[in-house]
Write a structure and sequence with these properties.
By secondary structure, the protein is of the alpha/beta class. It contains nine helices and five strands; from the N terminus they run E-H-E-H-H-H-H-E-E-H-H-H-E-H.
Length: 200
Amino acid sequence: MLKVGITGGIGVGKTIVTRMFAILSVPVYDADTRAKWVMHHNQALRQELEQAYGPDTFTSEGELNRPYLASVVFNDPQRLEQLNALVHPHVRDDFEAWVMAQKNAPYVLKEAALMYESEAWKQMDEIIAVYAPMEVRLKRLLQRDTHRTEADIRSIIAKQLSEEEKMRRAEHIIYNDDARLLIPQVLKLHKQFLGRKPKV
């Protein structure tokens, strides 16, 4: 089965693009959502997280204490790298198990913001990078995330792999820049993927 990754920085519009593929009956794996699920449900990972970040990592009800964890890692690159190193291997395993369940699909899609940083690209046959210029991303994010300032958003973007590097490394680019129509770009790639064979 062909495995296609889709990535892009915050505000480029990965979600709307993956929804279009989902409408075409393509199974979509959302790495961010599944990572949260794995952090809640994988007992080995829960123990690793508690050992790394202390008993406050989970609430008294057993829920992941996301505000606490975010406060610990967000401004500490080494702690953030440690978190990713703990979580990403379990997400990779979860993805492989999910792929095995998609027996009748001609191809599957994995959406991940950290496709290259997590090395998830190594599981993929091809990668799509979704691109939008900075001014468009800022406008979208200021409308969507009303609790964030422009400085907050720029700080988040600065911590991510540059869009230029993502575009350079991807096999396909979808331009979500409010100037080009999305649907024809998605349909063109969908047609291509239906005829593709996975790498051996």
